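[User]
If only I could read backbone structure tokens as easily as an amino acid sequence. I have put the entry right below:
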Amino acid sequence: MAAIQEDASSNRDSDGKEKAPPAASVSRESLSDGYGSSDEHVFSDPAVASHWRTVFEKAGYENRHRFDPSFKWTAEEEKKLVRKIDLRIMLWCVSAETEPGAR
């Protein structure tokens, strides 16, 4: 219990206020405004990827041949896909709103 209290108190300054977590030194270019693949994801661990590959195979998951935990995409590819999906959603919304007799 003392170790837990010690860890909690290390996050506080001399006035007892919570300290801000240390800032990560990540360049803006590497983040690319939140788009693109990240090196840290649930399937980064080979044991987890192997487990889920086995689960997908046993279940007969229809797209199991597409499971590739090492696949990465660029920020440009993701932006292009998001824009395409957004366009399709917006077209559907506009058509639903302008349908005669919708109200």
Observations:
- Confidence is low (pLDDT under 50) at residues 1-11, 20-28.
